[in-house]
Amino acid sequence: MGPVEFLGVKLLGGAIGFIIPLVLAAPISKLNPSAPLMLTVVVAMMGWTAPTLWIKKLVRQRRLDMKVALPDILDLIILSMDAGIGFDGALGRAIEKTKGSLTDEMTLVLNEINHGKSRSESFRDMATRARLEDLSLLLAAINQSEQLGTSIGQALKIQAKEIRRRRTQELREMAAKLPVKMLIPLVLCIFPSLLLVILGPAGILLLSSGVLGGN
């Protein structure tokens, strides 16, 4: 789906959201004369924005899949290069052994390189499409190694170690936030239930004895 098709989907969603309240206008207007107009505006806006929310969800999921797959693909590339295979060959070997969003992006990069596009430009375009920090830092390290003439394999090993370090730090931060996030369900759901179970029988006993009833 390209931009034109996506815009068509948004227009279609807005049109459907505009038509549905008009069909239901007669019974709704009996309850509230201004309700049909308000409902038309709200539903039309929902139909217009729903495709955008859907595509944003897909983007987040795609970035997460690429972020999760990056360390494993890096390991495959590093192992292949340690076995004496060149970088492009190692990249092709990793593509053969893996699947997913990152594999699709790297397949496109390898095809562009095989058709004469420079390696740095192909990777830069991939970083622009992915907009993933770990991937951008990795590609910057690859480009720097090419410009300075240093070992790409060594640069990949350093980046792989740094990516895992950042991943561990992110997991620790997420674990540290869990107690705070658990306060809301505890206060709203669990504590009232516990109070009802603990104090409920005592309250029933007091009501039956007439202490709370004033008799």
Describe the model.
The mean pLDDT is 81. This protein starts with a helix and ends in a 6-residue tail after the last helix. It has 215 residues and is mainly α. The chain has 8 helices and no strands. It folds into 2 domains: 60 residues, no CATH class; 105 residues, Receptor-associated Protein (Up-down Bundle), CATH 1.20.81. It is flat and about 90 Å long. α1 runs antiparallel to α3.
How are the SSEs placed, and which strands pair?
Layout (H helix, E strand, L loop, with lengths): L2 H21 L1 H7 L3 H48 L4 H11 L3 H14 L4 H12 L2 H16 L3 H58 L6
Helix pairs in contact: 1-3, 3-4, 3-8, 4-5, 5-6, 6-7, 7-8
* CATH class (first level) name of the largest domain: Mainly Alpha
Name the structural class: mainly alpha
**Any low-confidence stretches, pLDDT <50, length ≥5?**
none
Average pLDDT metric: 81
N- to C-terminal distance: 74 Å
User: SSE order, as H and E?
Assistant: HHHHHHHH
Number of individual domains = 2
Number of helices: 8
- Report the principal-axis shape: flat
**The biggest beta sheet, please?**
none
- The CATH topology annotation of the largest domain reads as Receptor-associated Protein
Number of strands: 0
What's the short story on this structure?
The protein is an all-alpha fold and 215 residues long. The protein has helices at 3-23, 25-31, 35-82, 87-97, 101-114, 119-130, 133-148, 152-209.
